[in-house]
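Rotation project, supervised by the postdoc (A.L.). Task for the rotation student: set up a whole-complex structure prediction and record inputs and outputs verbatim in this book. Inputs entered:
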Amino acid sequence: MISQKARYALRALLHLAARGDGGPIQISEIAESEKIPRKFLEAILLELKKTGIVRSHRGRAGGYSLGRSAKDISFADVLRVTDGPLALSPCVSVMAYRKCDDCFEESICAIRKALLAARDATAQILESRNLASAAQQLRRSGAL
Amino acid sequence: MISQKARYALRALLHLAARGDGGPIQISEIAESEKIPRKFLEAILLELKKTGIVRSHRGRAGGYSLGRSAKDISFADVLRVTDGPLALSPCVSVMAYRKCDDCFEESICAIRKALLAARDATAQILESRNLASAAQQLRRSGAL
DNA sequence: TTAATCCCTATTGACTAGATAGAGATTTAG
DNA sequence: CTAAATCTCTATCTAGTCAATAGGGATTAA
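Outputs recorded:
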């Protein structure tokens, strides 16, 4: 299961992607219209900023905007920031590989083989879905 | 990431699948040869028993054996017991559906659409991998 | 210089993961 | 029949994580 943080992050980013072309948007606007606890959202956006997914503008009339084109921000990108690796085991993570603590011999581990296939399938999907396509879906279904 | 409990469960079940035809195997044998804390393994096997994945035999010379043919026990079956639903969100879980707490309108949720595709991809893989095929892989690579 | 914004650190409460302890119940060998 | 070996059950502990909140500090523009 993804965390609440991940849900908030995705909702906030979709908000930015949808109303994206009129300068920065304030935390409080996002928090109110997406029903996200304001302080929690601050922390989330700060993390997203550190990885370049969003950009911030300080001072009066400051706020947040996407750090790059919406079509270049995938669901995988976001989940990796909020929830860590997509993989079901560190030993099959591409972005954050680590040997399992008690692994005997990785090359013949039957568990690893299954988890690796699962990771590849998940990553293939989540890397192909991005904010632009998601926002477009919303527009098509009349939600925007 | 899967839990430590899931790892232990899978290792224990592979142990049973590999040495499966000579009557029940004791917890202590599994615990020692798979390096799993004994008491923790007891709890895990008890849970696996409740769902029919293993069968127990009490008393002297008792122990555990698989509850059904190894080819009918998928990785998905095991992970569902130890770690809950495979899905990344309750609203896309097939075995344990639940509406998201703060969902506005499920049918047009763009997040849900991506998570649904991810669930299907993961489930497809994990339901196709089973203890029999995993044990066979181990045999082929000379681990048994 | 003031007000609006983002930035940062610390803290809290609830919950879960992983592991352990100690008895109780059941079966079978002798 | 009884003793030993097994599984069964309930309770507990510790450390860590999740979700949320608090209270300022830094920056910018009007």
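Student's summary: The CA atoms of residues 13 and 131 of chain B lie 7 Å apart.
Supervisor addendum: The mean pLDDT of chain B is 95.
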